[in-house]
């Protein structure tokens, strides 16, 4: 058992029977009364942010989580299927557990977070940037811009639609930011 003095960003704790990760905390010592700790936590099962106040010295239960690299194999009616490269263990997860799943292509490496005690998948995170080929976009027309950062819609090889600058053409490879679903740069 740990106490609130052990809080740090990224620490995973059991809060009301749910696995949570500490996003922000502040130790407060008012002039009158006992000290307390304000905490913002992310529920690792659904991603919601929770706020709570703990009394200083209150006991908390730290949970053990592991991050493991997996490779995306294919999608079927059961969900998305991944394989661990060293153990060849395969795991299938629901599409709603993956943010921006339509930016993931076969062979893509991801990082999964597991609840170590019961081997339960908590999160599946894509790398920050992925390379994609533009399969369709409208050609740009000269003089079509009213501002310097004009954008147009483009479809990438996985079928996802993102906004790209007007100078990007069909067949080019670009780097996409998976956190914001935005164009980052051309690939060389």
Give the strand tally: 16
Terminal residue distance: 52 Å
Q: Supply the CATH architecture of the largest domain.
A: Roll
What amount of the residues lies in strands? over 45%
Q: What is the chain-wise order of helices and strands?
A: EEEEEEEEEEEEEEEE
Multimerization state: single chain
Give the C-alpha Rg. 22 Å
What characteristic shape results from the CA principal axes? flat
Provide a count of the helices: 0
Q: How are the strands of the biggest sheet laid out side by side?
A: 1-6-2-3-4-5
Text of the CATH class of the largest domain: Mainly Beta
Number of domains: 3
What does this structure look like?
The protein is mainly beta and 188 residues long. The chain folds into 3 domains: 2-62, SH3 type barrels (Roll); 65-125, OB fold (Dihydrolipoamide Acetyltransferase, E2P); 129-186, OB fold (Dihydrolipoamide Acetyltransferase, E2P). 0% of the residues lie in helices and 53% in strands. The chain has no helices and 16 strands. The protein has strands spanning 2-3, 12-15, 18-28, 36-43, 49-55, 59-62, 65-76, 79-83, 90-93, 109-115, 120-125, 129-137, 151-156, 161-165, 173-177, 182-186. The strands form 3 sheets. It has a 6-stranded antiparallel beta sheet with strand order 1-6-2-3-4-5, with no helix packed on it.
